[in-house]
Amino acid sequence: MMVGSEPQMLLATFATALVSAALVYAWRHRVGTRPAAPPLRFDFTGLVLLAALAVGLWLYAEDQPHHLAMLVVTTAALLFVVGSVTDLFSLPRGLRAAAVAVAGGFLCYNGVCIQTVKLPFSTVFIHLGWAGPVITILWLMLCAALFARAGTMPSVASGVGALAGGTLYLVCLLQPRVTGEAARLLSLGLFAACIPEVIFGRLLALRGATAGAYTLGFVIGCITVVGALKNTALLVILLPLLIIGVPLFASIFTYAADLRRGWRAVAVAEHHQHLHQLLADQGYSYWQIVGILLGGTAYLCALALLLVWLIELTFVLKLLMVAVALVAGLVLFYILLRLLPRRQPSTGPAEVRLLGVRLHAVTMDEALQEAERFIREDRPHMIVTSDASTIVRAQDDPELRRIMNETDMVTPDGAGVVLAAKLLNLPVRARCSGCDMVAELCRVAARLGRSVYLLGAEPGVAELAARNLKRQVPGLEIAGVHHGYFSPEEEPAIVEEIRRAHPAVLFVALGIPRQEKWIRAHLDELGVPVCVGVGGSFDVISGRKKRAPLWMQRMGLEWLYRTIREPRRIGRLVALPRILWLTFMQLLKPPDHQQHSSRR
Ligand code: UDP
Known about the structure:
Elements: H1 6-33, H2 44-60, H3 67-88, H4 94-109, E1 116-118, E2 125-127, H5 131-150, H6 154-174, H7 181-204, H8 211-226, H9 230-245, H10 248-261, H11 268-271, H12 275-281, H13 286-309, H14 315-339, E3 350-354, E4 357-361, H15 364-377, E5 382-386, H16 388-396, H17 398-406, E6 409-412, H18 415-423, H19 434-447, E7 451-456, H20 461-472, E8 477-482, H21 491-501, E9 505-509, H22 514-526, E10 530-533, H23 537-541, H24 550-554, H25 558-565, H26 575-587, E11 597-599
Parallel strand pairs: 5-6, 5-10, 7-8, 7-9, 9-10
Antiparallel strand pairs: 1-2, 3-4, 3-11
The structure holds uridine-5'-diphosphate.
C-alpha cells in the first residue's frame, strides 16, 4: 500500500475527479449523439464524487484506508445506488429517504453518531443519550434532502460541497483537538472531488436526476457527525442550503413585498419559487446565478472560519459579529445583484421613474433611432440628457421636474444615474453620454440631408465646435451658431433666426437647468424636430476643455476628472452622494411608492 501525504491525497482526489468527469462526459457525449440513444436519468456526478473520494483515501492510507472515512464512503456508495434506482425508475422519493435512515442507523451502530451538542456560542455541552441516533439520522436526512434540492443546479450543489469541504477542513486544522481525523480526510477529499464537478456538473447530471447531490449531502452530513463541527455546519451548510435549496427565503421575501403593498390574497404557489428561479426570471444567466449563490456561500464560510479563529471571544461579541456580518452581507449581496449586467427583455426602451423623475432606459442606438423618428415626423421634440445633478436639481425645482416629466425623451447621462437606476432595479443598462450624442446626432442629420444649429457657450466656442463637428462628420451642414451669453431682449431675434434656418437638430449649451427651461419656453416657436440640452459639450468638442481619458469615462469617473480640472465645480459633487442617499431612502419605501416602469 502506498503511503501519501495530505497534499498528495488532495492532488490524487482532484485528478481522479477531473479525469473521471472528463471520461464520463466524453462517453455521454458519444452516447448522446446516437440517434436511438434512450433518455437516461442518471446523475454521473455521484460516480465522479465517490470514485475521487475512494481513490484519495486509498492513496493516503498508511496501512489501510482510514476505517471511519471508508465506512462513510462505502455507505454513501450504497446510498447512491438506491438514489440512482429511484431516479432511473422514477420511484417515490421516500425510498431514498428510507435508505438514508437505514444508512444513518448503520453508521450510528458503528460509532458515527452525534452524542453531544454544544450550544451555539457557548461552552455548554448537552449529552443526547438515546436521542443521539435519532438526531443523527434526522440531520443526515436533512443534509441529503437539502443538497438534492440544490442539485437541480448541479454546479451549485457541488460548489457548496467544495466550499463546505474546504471550510470544514480548515476548521479541522484550526481545532485539531475537537475534530477527528476522519472529518479532516473526508472534508479535504470532498473539497478536491467537488471542484471539477462545479465545471462539469451541469453536463453530467441529467435533468431531474439528483442522486449525486443527495449522496454529496449525506457525505457532508457525515463529516459534521464524525468531527465536532455542528456550529460551523449551521453557517456553512445549513444556512446556504436553506437559502438555495428551499423556497423558504425567496417565499418570505415575496410575502414581505406583498405585506408592504398592503395584504392581498395571493396563492401560495405564486410564492413557491426557489432563489435560483427568481434570479433566472430576473434575467441572470446560469453561470451568474452559480456565481451569486456560491459567492454568498463563500461569504458565510469565511464568517464561520472567523468565528472558529476567534473562539475565545465572548458569546455577546460573537453574536454581535454574526448579526453585523449577516446584515452587511445582505446589503452587499443586494448591491452586487443590482450592478451585475443581465439580459433585459428586448421589447424596446422602457420608460421608468427614477426618484420622481421620468427617464427612458435607452442605449445610444435606441436614442438615435428615436431622434431619427422625431426628425422624420418634423414636429418639435425635446430631449433632456439627464445626469445625477439634473435629477437632484429636479427634486427641488418643480419647473425642471415638470419639464422632464413631460418631455419626449430623457436619456440617462452619467454614471450616478445608471448606478441609482440599477440599485432600484430599473432596466437602465448603460449611460448615454450627452457629449457623444452631439456627434452622433450630427451623423443622423447628415445622413438625412438635414442641418444642425449650435446655441450656447462663450463667444467663439460654438464656431470652433461647429468646425470640428464638420471635420468629424462628412457632409454635415451647420445651419448656424450663436453664443450663450445673450440678454432677454436679444432672445426673440435668436429664436427667429433658428426658426428660419429650420435645422433638424438644435443643440443648446446653456447649462442645467437654464437650457431645459429655455428650450421648453421656445419649443413650439422654434419648430425644430430635435432640441437637446447639451451642457458643457461645446467646450469639449471645440477643444477648449479636455474630456476625461477613455478609461475614466468607462469607469464612470468623468465627474472626478472634470472636478480636478475645474475645482469651481466642487459644489456639484454633492449631487452624487445626494442621489445615492435619495436612492437608499427610496429603497426603504413600499413598492407601490417606488418607481414603475412601462414599455413604450
Ligand atoms: N453658458 C452659456 N450661457 C450662460 C451660462 C453658461 O452659454 O449664461 C454655457 C457655458 O459657457 C458652458 C455651458 O453653458 O459652455 C455650461 O457648461 P457646464 O459644464 O456648466 O454644463 P452642465 O454641467 O450644466 O451640463
